[in-house]
Amino acid sequence: MSRKHPLRSDATPARGRRQARRTTEHAGAVTVRPELLPEDIPLLLDLLARTGRFREAELAVAAELMRDRLTRGPASDYRFLVAEAAGTPVGFACHGPIPATDGRHDLYWIAVDPRHQRRGIGTTLLRRVEEAVRADGGRRIYVETSTQPAYGPTRAFYRRHGYRRAATLADFYAEGDGKAIYCRDLGT
Ligand SMILES: CC(C)(COP(=O)(O)OP(=O)(O)OC[C@H]1O[C@@H](n2cnc3c(N)ncnc32)[C@H](O)[C@@H]1OP(=O)(O)O)[C@@H](O)C(=O)NCCC(=O)NCCS
């Protein structure tokens, strides 16, 4: 398995309707645990598939990272945060330190169940990732996505949370489909 699995969402967001907005209080009903459980795997893979934004090959990579974590435990470089509502996973994030760098971390995945998006859960997960990175002595987080217009919502999410576009690699994924690299300095 290669060390680094930068991932991107992969399809046009089909969600035309704007869901009922969740208040901060509602978002507080979601809990986040810094632990991946074996029973999470099928649920999180189903969640990813239902976003309609990831290719089969990307889902296979997600499964691989989850198995790596479960097999190797804390020795794994892939760290998971799982958001739960009423005891059911509704989102997750996967992040880890970039080897041979000084406090640089990658955010490999962040995804929220389509039925629970735009309610602050992604924000909660991202903040928890940042807290974990800080606690680990990390100072900068990188995250990658596609430059295609369909990925506008994902890019808006990162921008909204202080991530700046650090680089753009034209035609990275395919002709006309570039890679946008965002990063955020966490400060000291
Ligand atoms: C990106 C994602 C994780 C955001 O999670 P979320 O719980 O829906 O995000 P939040 O409710 O915390 O949104 C926070 C802010 O991000 C921006 N944002 C999120 N979704 C957006 C959308 N569809 N359109 C425009 N802006 C959006 C907004 O600024 C939003 O703040 P607001 O609701 O006050 O306007 C989620 O939409 C998702 O899982 N998308 C599919 C998977 C994906 O693309 N993952 C990233 C690549 S691995």
Automatic annotation (TrEMBL):
One term of GO molecular function: acyltransferase activity, transferring groups other than amino-acyl groups
Region of interest (Disordered), residue spans: 1-29
Species assigned in the record: Inmirania thermothiophila
A Pfam family per the record: Acetyltransf_1
Keyword Amino-acid biosynthesis: no
Gene3D superfamilies: 3.40.630.30
Protein name: Acetyltransferase (GNAT) family protein
Domain (N-acetyltransferase) ranges: 30-188
Entry keywords, A to Z: Acyltransferase, Transferase
